[in-house]
TrEMBL record:
Residues 245-431 form the Phosphodiester glycosidase domain. This is Copper amine oxidase. Residues 796-903 form the Copper amine oxidase-like N-terminal domain. It comes from Paenibacillus etheri. It comes from the Bacteria.
């Protein structure tokens, strides 16, 4: 007779004649679409394995590595390949964990507080559990309660069992530190006091459509166990079944609710049997309050049929298809059609000798193009993975790690959504139990780039022989700077002039150095103010955050200390990033706030007609229609009464239902039929209030300009908020030729990663405003015609001839004119910087910076290049006529026979 054993698994005591087997299976066919961040959505059961496609030549190079903790290092790689005949490249980050190191371990992090049916970002789970590095984990149903699709073991306890799906692999590490990747199944049995038994279909599972069974509903005629880690009141919701539920405490039935869920979360230490149909009738016939009930179960390998006891496991997490086997790209064990494309991806694998675990995340952001699954296979085999599987990816792909000397983790790279981390159900964490060691080294933490005049504080971080962070500030470190571009005192660095400085800190016998670059104007490609236009009214206060882009592509915030502000047409001040207008000069309708940094400038144009309300939907006299590009998409676009803070107001509501559609889908709110509504003059910015629906869809506006060209303006790349929010859009670089028409506002559900986003929702818009400097800043500017002849010191303006003190010339095929007289004729002003030989021209909404003998110029803060440069002749500055005139909105004509230049406005 076989000896029985019993174990406790998070509140449920399961007696078993079989050894425990922990399962982790991921990705699933659900009653409702079941999706992970890679957009996995399976519509057929028992999908046949698909062979991995051949990939183009794939090159991998390591860019560097850094220790995270004793036994774990972070490695960054660059990969290059060819796609459709074109070269493509990207970045991948790999945490290599040495299982031979006794101080490092792996475990699954779960939601909030270690509970299912809660969600948290990867970084949040790492912070809560003390992980020194982490990555996102299993697939999950984004519309469900919050439970993994695969099985899960955390801390040696079984948290969730695998779903009944084919080709879904799991990763595990045994307590004797051996890695495993395999496919598992689950078997279980409930036994009543009278000996009657009923099969258990799983533990802590959400609803899905199992494969290979007779039902398309996982919970129909089935019994499931829910332990106290399932914190949701529903077990589960959206299961298309009405359950009978049994509360079991200390192995005894204490409550039975027939054909209704128990109105409670699972009590601590207890569990609930959720039964439906045949299982419910079993409960009615065989279980009674006050009687004991026992459960047995087993999990086993589908490939070897061998049992695996989770008590022998350090951890286990579910995944999707196998990617690598025996060091080679494996045939996909499950259809990957719905998780295709070039995405951010997450994977796990281990080395041939079982010593190293590879935690892999590939980037898709402004620095990296993402990977296909077949490219991911190539990457994994290149870095030494012997066996590996795919985890959830796309928008969920997130990696965090603790930089050397730091006490908390930071985002390793930007996700597909920038610095936003998606809330997920679980992740894999890296942990250390290393003791305190001796000081091994120190490092300086702080910005690698400063601007002239900027002050920044640098800190000294230390780490011990086990790479644990240690406090070295108590040692009163000394700081020294060299190079002359910056000074340092007690870790506070002041940037003095452009150049490079070496910053060195010493604490006891340890020292560290870092290079800081002080950026000058020549290092920048553009500088802009977050508020491009503002009202020219005394008392106006607006935020004026200034950002700069370097020639290397880095974007930096420019601190107030690095800027000098100049005001034209008004008196004001900038303090703590806010511009305040104290008084407006008499007769001025356009003012300029000019932020200057080392020869670079950015401008805020202030107008008496700034931010004019264009449409508030209170009295709409034109039709608004719902249209779409896919006939199966349904929806409405209509004017409705506002809610919440919009009570008493009218808003444009756009509701959509894309569930029956496919491909790239649009839901349009069409304004005024096909005509649109006119935006009558030059608009430099647009403001709109938007009620978001947290759909992660894309919100856009479509314009048709006066040349007939269509222009698309992004209002929000991701609708990642609920409720009302004001959005400001800079239109100055849109290329729209005004007057134009706003044709429609619309929601986009793009095809790539489509299932990450909701296919149903409602957004609303209100208070559309345009800042139209042409209605104010260009108002009053002279109109007419002026002509000048080469070599003649005369200029005719609207038929009146006047003398000028320097004649236009032609040099190397380009015509040069004295800028002063052009501005006298057509309005605007110019200031001359004698020291730096620079001219700043202000006219309307344009700010133009020119430098004598230099072809580069700045237009509204953006560096551009001309074919010719300004020159000085007879003490006067002459500028290339066509460059200046066209950039200032003037029209230039050349008459070859008379050598006459005609300028019109």
């Amino acid at each position: 007779m076989e000896k029985k054993s019993s174990e406790v698994v998070r509140g449920i005591r399961l007696s078993s004649t079989k050894k425990w087997i922990a399962a982790s299976l991921a990705g699933v066919l659900w009653i409702m679409p079941v999706i992970g961040s890679e957009g996995m959505m399976l519509f057929g059961q028992g999908a046949a394995p698909i062979a991995a496609a051949a990939t183009a030549p794939f090159k991998v190079s390591k860019l560097g590595e850094e220790v995270i903790t004793s036994g774990a290092i972070m490695m960054k790689y660059k990969y290059t390949t060819t796609r459709s005949g074109a070269s493509a490249s990207g970045l991948a980050d790999v945490i290599r964990v040495d299982l031979n190191n006794p101080y490092v371990s792996l475990d699954v992090m779960t939601g909030k507080g270690g509970n299912l049916t809660t969600r948290q970002s990867t970084g949040g789970m790492a912070k809560e559990t003390g992980a020194v590095a982490a990555v996102n984990g299993d697939y999950f149903n984004t519309g469900g309660e919050g439970a993994p699709i695969g099985g899960q073991v955390s801390g040696g306890a079984l948290v969730s069992t695998p779903s009944q799906l084919d080709g879904m692999y799991a990763f595990a590490v045994t307590k004797d530190r051996k890695p495993i990747i395999d496919e598992y199944s689950f078997e279980g049995m409930v036994t009543a006091p009278d000996g009657a038994q009923f099969e258990i279909s799983g533990i802590n599972k959400g609803a899905y459509s199992p494969e290979g069974g007779s039902s398309t509903y996982s919970h129909a005629n089935a019994m499931y166990i829910y332990t106290d880690v399932w914190t949701a009141l529903d077990r589960p919701k959206n299961s298309s079944t009405t359950p009978t539920e049994v509360l079991v405490e200390n192995g005894v039935v204490t409550q039975i609710s027939e054909n209704a869920a128990l109105p409670m979360a699972v009590p601590k230490g207890a569990y609930i049997l959720r039964a439906h149909g045949l299982a419910g009738r079993y409960v009615t016939a065989h279980l009674m309050v006050g009687q004991p009930v026992t459960s047995v179960y087993s999990l086993k390998s589908k490939t070897t049929q061998q049992s695996l006891d989770p008590a022998n496991l350090q951890t286990m997490i579910g995944g999707h298809t196998i990617l690598v086997n025996n060091g080679k790209a494996a045939t996909f064990s499950r259809s990957t059609n719905s998780i295709g494309g070039y995405r951010a991806r997450t994977a796990l694998g281990y080395s041939q000798d079982g010593r190293y675990v590879y935690i892999i995340a590939t980037e898709k952001n402004g620095n990296s193009s993402g990977m296909s699954l077949t490219e991911l296979q190539s990457f994994m085999t290149n870095i030494g993975v012997w066996k590996g599987l795919n985890l959830d990816g796309g928008g969920s792909t997130t990696m965090v790690d603790r930089p050397l000397g730091e006490t908390s983790t930071t985002l390793t790279f930007n996700t597909e959504y920038g610095t936003e981390q998606r809330s997920i159900v679980n992740g894999l964490g890296v942990y250390t139990n290393a003791p305190q060691g001796e000081v091994k080294g120190i490092k300086i933490s702080g910005s690698s780039a400063l601007l002239v005049g900027q002050k920044a504080t640098y800190s000294l971080k230390g780490y011990d022989t086990y790479y644990n962070p240690i406090d070295v500030a108590a040692g009163n470190p000394t700081w020294v700077s060299s190079g002359g571009s910056a000074t340092v005192s007690a870790g506070e660095v002041t940037a003095v002039k452009p150049g490079t400085v070496t910053l060195t800190a010493k604490s006891g016998a340890a020292s560290a150095s870092t290079t800081v670059t002080v950026l000058g104007g020549e290092d920048l490609s553009s500088m802009s103010v977050g508020t491009a236009t503002a009202p020219l009214t005394a008392g106006t206060t607006v935020s004026v955050p200034v950002t700069a882009a370097t020639k290397s592509g880095t974007t930096i915030n420019v601190p107030d200390s690095a800027l000098k502000w100049e005001f034209v047409g008004f008196k004001g001040a900038v303090k703590d990033g806010k511009l305040t207008v104290s008084a407006v000069d008499a007769g001025v309708t356009t003012g300029y706030a000019i932020a200057r940094y080392d020869g670079f400038s950015a401008v805020v144009v202030l107008s008496t007609a700034a931010a004019t309300t264009w449409e508030d939907f209170e009295k709409v006299s034109y039709p608004i229609d719902f249209t779409t590009n896919v006939p199966a998409v349904q929806g409405t676009a209509t004017i409705v009464d506002g809610t919440a803070e919009r009570v008493g107001s009218k808003v444009l509501s756009l509701s959509y239902d894309m569930t029956a559609g496919s491909g790239k889908m649009y839901a349009y709110a069409q304004l005024n039929g096909t005509s649109g509504k006119t935006v009558p003059a030059l608009a430099t910015s647009m403001s709109v209030d938007v009620m978001g629906d947290m759909s992660l869809n894309w919100l856009r506006a479509e314009f048709v300009d006066n040349s007939g060209a269509t222009a698309y303006v992004d209002l929000a790349k991701i609708i990642d908020w609920n409720g009302w929010k004001n959005i400001n859009i800079d239109l100055s670089g849109s290329g729209i030729k005004f007057p134009a028409t706003l044709k429609r506002l619309y929601v986009v559900n793009v095809e790539e990663g489509q299932d990450e986003r909701a296919k149903t929702g409602t957004v609303a818009v209100d208070n559309i405003k345009f800042t139209m400097p042409s209605l104010s800043s260009d108002a009053g500017l002279p109109k007419g015609t002026a002509s000048m002849s080469i070599g003649s010191k005369a200029m005719t303006v609207n038929g009146t001839k006047k003398a000028i003190d320097v004649a236009p010339i032609v040099k190397d095929g380009s015509t040069y004119v004295p800028i002063r007289y052009v501005l006298d004729a057509f309005g605007g002003s110019a200031t001359w910087d004698q020291v730096n030989k620079k001219i700043m021209v202000l006219r309307g909404a344009k700010a133009l910076d020119l430098t004598v003998n230099k072809k580069e110029y700045l237009l509204n803060g953006k560096r551009q290049s001309a074919e010719v440069a300004p020159i000085i002749l007879q003490g006067r500055t002459l500028v290339p006529l066509r460059l200046v005139s066209e950039q200032l909105g003037l029209t230039v004509k050349w008459e070859q026979k008379t050598k006459t230049v005609t300028i019109e406005s």
